[in-house]
Amino acid sequence: MTTQAESYEFQVETRQLLQLMINSIYSDKDLFLRELISNASDALDKLRLERFNDDTLDVDTSDLHIRIELDDSARTLTISDNGIGMTRDEVVDLIGKIANSGTAEFMRQMKEAQQEEEAKTEELIGRFGVGFYSSFMVAERVVLVTRRAGQAEATRWESAGEGTYTLQPVEDAPQGTSITLHLKPADPEDRLFDYTDPRKVREIVTRYSDFITWPIRMASLQVAGEGEEAEEPADETVNSRKALWTRPAGEVTDEEYAELYKRISRDWNDPLETIRLNIEGTLQYQALLFLPERAGANLFSPDAKHGVQLYVNRVFVMDDAEELIPSYLRFVKGVVDSQDLALNVSREILQQDRQIESMRKRLTKRVLQAIKGLAANEPEKYTKFWGEFGRVVKEGLLQDFANRDAILAICSFESTHDAEQRTSLRDYVERMPEGQDKIYYLTGDSRPALESSPYMEAFRAKELEVLLLTDPIDEVWVDGMPEFEGKQFQSIAKGDIDLTSDEADEDKAKQKEEFAGLLTWMGEVLTKEVKEVRLSNRLTTSPACVVSDQNDATPTLVNLYKAMGQPIPQERRILELNPGHALVSGLRAAHQSRPEDPRLAETAELVHGMALLAEGTQPDDTARFVQLMAAQLGETLGK
Ligand SMILES: Nc1ncnc2c1ncn2[C@@H]1O[C@H](COP(=O)(O)OP(=O)(O)OP(=O)(O)O)[C@@H](O)[C@H]1O
């Protein structure tokens, strides 16, 4: 007995939604498969739950799965599940109408938005799921056959996505739902691919649905070898199903974590550290994050990718979810799986969403905590980590003021205390001798350059520890950093540093008097270059050095801002002379005896130029500097 198919009209809203789908509101048409697989997976979940609640039910739960079948001659893609299925009434309610309150709301807002501007429409699309109807993006006709588990009668629904659909009872249908898409001709230019190509379909499944709990089966890709009889290919499960974050931590092995890490990060090495997070409550999500062992090549390129993927209920939503993790933690790889977001949530929405903001805060704290844990308990791992990613983490000192203290606490720096090991600020502060109330640092290009810098002389003589900050970013954050645990940061190349004891004050006053004439005169000679010439308390062996005033920017910082396209002015600096050096005392004597000698002004210029060279910068006019130097050296030989 065959029953005639009866034709029905779609609800007005449904028709409008179908129109949208046919005209494709998604630019990425591959998403239809993600939607259908998600529905199938839900149907399997529902059946399992129903059986769990009532084990006398006459339903088959022995081999719950999803199957995808392709037929390139008929140009069909069929996706079936042996889940809960639908009764005829359910088909009418769920598929024929927009029963889903979310979708109805979507349509209402969509209508409003269409009267406004395009952008708003785009935004709305991301806020709601539009599930089953997305089949019409790729299919010109859809046939759905479904049998409610435990019931005999099945229903066949068919539609071309226009005004009507037909319903027809069928016999002998298997339990669950099978949806056959009669595909539109492929049009890759419109991102409509050939969905009868098993490779393409597998690629979509592994991209979006790899972590679906239920097996997704497809015919094996193996082709018969030469001379072999082509056999009916066996089924193969194409998704890994390994959503490790949904399993209790104790049950997952390190190997499994490493395998997952490698897959999502495309790194060959094992992760350095695995971080798990399981948040329950009004906002539910799990995160499985990894700290890599090595920095990737493009970590510092302007379009460096963030490593966190966003999933909704184990379904992939997007890569590179920079809304979830701040850019100074962009090396963190992993997965965040939320139970509260819409499947096709868009970036625009993520950016505005307060829940996302709260997730981001939570994840950031957790990662910082993990790094702190490494520093405290696994120093070797920490050292490795910091060597690779310290530079990136320090960007956070400039970006994330709320976590500034937490970031400072996990930083470590090279220091004069130890040639091999970096030090934390905490350890530096603990080593500070009585009377030292500042954290001393020097910024520059490399450790050897800093160690041999003239600024270091008095500190070396006094055995005072100095942090050697050699990353360009150090220059920037340290400049604006108020303090660490109540101790201010002090550049030893800035301001008036005096490490001498009070008893020496009398000697200093005397010296000041003796040199007053020289200092004033040199100040006049060099007035274009420096704002002051004074005696130094920081030099023991060099004749002179240039320092920046306490609140002025150093030349490196000036250059950095220039490179970033935000130039700041370079203030004139201060020239400090070492009264104990023969060149300085000799210049004083010469100036006293023959103040009119033009050669002395040239010597003053040379002293300034040498001080610049010693700090690693250059005199403005190097050619002139070299000429003066050669002339004066020549003269000494002639004597
Ligand atoms: N494979 C299936 N098996 C059983 N029921 C299904 C299946 N596919 C869809 N349904 C039913 O049809 C309803 C509508 O599906 P549709 O995909 O349009 O929206 P949704 O899944 O509810 O929401 P969304 O996809 O927007 O999150 C589903 O809620 C479900 O009850």
Automatic annotation (TrEMBL):
Record-listed ATP binding positions: E35, N39, D81, M86, S101, G102, T177, R347
Task: Report the protein name in the record.
Answer: Chaperone protein HtpG
Q: Which SUPFAM superfamilies match?
A: ATPase domain of HSP90 chaperone/DNA topoisomerase II/histidine kinase, HSP90 C-terminal domain, Ribosomal protein S5 domain 2-like
Q: Name one GO cellular component term.
A: cytoplasm
Which GO molecular function terms does the record list?
ATP binding; ATP hydrolysis activity; ATP-dependent protein folding chaperone; unfolded protein binding
Q: Which PANTHER family match?
A: HEAT SHOCK PROTEIN 90 FAMILY MEMBER (PTHR11528)
Question: Would I find Phosphoprotein among this entry's keywords?
Answer: no
Q: Which family does it belong to?
A: Belongs to the heat shock protein 90 family.
